[in-house]
Amino acid sequence: MTERDWQHDVLRDLGLLDTGLVLLTPHPPTAPLVPPPSVPAPPSPSPTALSSGSRPAGQRQATAQFQRPSLLGAALQAEPPEQPVTEASAGWGLPQPQKPHELAQQPEPPQAPLASVDWSAATHQTFTPERTAATASPPAPASSPPTPAQRPSMHQRPVPGPSADEMVRRVRHGDSTVRRLGHGMRRIVGASAAGDVRDTSRLAERMNHAVPSCRRIVVTSIRGGAGKSSITALVAEVIREHRTDRVAAVDADPGLGSLAPRLGIRPTRSLRDLAAARPTTFEETASYLTRTPGGLWVLAASGHGSVGADLDFETFHAALGRLGRYFSTTVVDCGAGLVSPLHRDILNAAHAQIFVAPATGDGTLSARSAIDWFARNGHADLLARTVIVLVSHTPVPDTDLALAQRLLGGAGQSVVIIPFDRHLAAGASIASGLLSTSTREAATRIADEAFTLSLAGGSV
Predict the structure, then answer these.
(1) Region Disordered: what ranges (predicted)?
(2) Range 407-425 average pLDDT
């Protein structure tokens, strides 16, 4: 019987051939092998016994012998033996098992000395594949946690996105083509051209009236979405067009106001920045404002298109105090609402008011309620210097606008209706050349009346 046949019999008796495990000695024995006596081989375990986890006694004994030599296999992997090994033993490096009846009869074959193995140290150290591989190549250093400068900050300035103009697929004129042709023919054939020139001259004369101090015209509404920012932009542009000195539009919306997008600008500094600074010249003050292509100065409520924090009247008053030395008129876009402490203080310091409401039945009734609130809460004087504006958001309104004018104008206030304008309805920046004729006429009337009423407000 050859050595391989004997090993095959032992592994078969132990039931290791079925599991695919091959265990061979790393060094061949020096003494010739003696055939074992005729002892009946232990029965092979059945598949049922293997699946249930029970093993024969001989297999348990052989398994106990293999626990310590596993350290020898790791040592052989670190330093190759002096004698050649077979192909199977090179992968495992474990000694050859013996049958139980031969353990007492045959002495253990001598092993080649392993001078490089320190068993005292090996018994206290577990050799794992990870630790063995670490001796060949050091592991990559773990990524260190990000420093505070690398972590994203919640206070970083937002990345600028697309502008409101870039969101509009098509920029249309406020008037339809047919209506524009009709207005052009009336200018050519009609006799109203001379009257338009006279009206424009009178308007410019009233707009250029000397002011005792910077006039504050506040634009308010009881709810959002009424068109307040659009009216602020229109009125400020009309006043700027007819005056020869400086005019500013101020966004006092404590949230995210719409005045800057309607004027087509992206401010980088805000009203709070100007209030915290102490500019001594106009050039220093102008660095906190943004100027439109038409020449209107704009003071935004927040910079970089971000949502601002709560605004108090002290901050608002300090910022407008910086502008009062260099500007003749400021048109203030207030946030929606009337009853907050900020609104009350702004109304107390206003020279004139433009109250905006939707041109609907509900908008008319809310405007009527606001008029009663002004009269009952100590703003009756300001109510006499108020222009009421109804903005149409649909081409064909279902509300009786003539009845709305009579209902809101009963206390002597002027009521102006802004008709539906396709250019305003797009929500992009306002271009005066694309406004409808009726929108420009209504905006001019609102600016004229509001500025004239502000002159009667004294030096508040």
Answers:
(1) 25-114, 130-167
(2) 91
